[in-house]
Amino acid sequence: MDLSNATPQEIEQFYASKGRDYYGNFTSNQLRNFFSEIVSLRTFYRTNSSEKNKIELRLRKLKAMLLYAEGRQTGRSNLEDFRKDVFTLIESVLNHTGDFNKKLELFFDIMEGFVAYHKFYEEGKNL
């Protein structure tokens, strides 16, 4: 997804179209650990928005964290599809086209959407 030109409808469609199987492939703990790093990055960004190099480094660190989590996964979880989606989003933010700050804010919004849909599809609920 190219975040430099994404509409609100395209953004919602991106995480809303995934379905129960997609969100059931990873655990709440895996998502919580990853999302806490995103919240930390968002807090850093909002107080240090001029520190683009540090923000980019932390985005790249998120990719490494997902690879690590995927490597540690047990038989119950499969982070591959989620990782690919997040990598695509991060690369879109890091791409030099468009407004970096706008794309980063959209990335944060999309990650919140993933958390909301994961909670909705959480095992044993909303069947």
Describe the structure.
With 127 residues, the protein is mainly alpha-helical. It has one domain. It contains 6 helices and no strands. The protein has helices at residues 8-16, 19-23, 28-47, 52-72, 80-94, 100-120. Helix 3 (28-47) packs antiparallel against helix 6. The chain is globular, with a radius of gyration of 14 Å. The model has no long low-confidence stretch (mean pLDDT 88).
The secondary structure category is mainly alpha
Order of helices and strands: HHHHHH
Rounded Rg: 14 Å
**Globular, elongated, flat, extended or rod-shaped: what is the shape?**
globular
Tell me the number of strands. 0
Helix content: over 70%
Pick out its properties.
127 residues; mainly alpha; 72% helix
Short description:
With 127 residues, the chain is an all-alpha fold.
Fold blueprint:
Blueprint: H1 8-16, H2 19-23, H3 28-47, H4 52-72, H5 80-94, H6 100-120
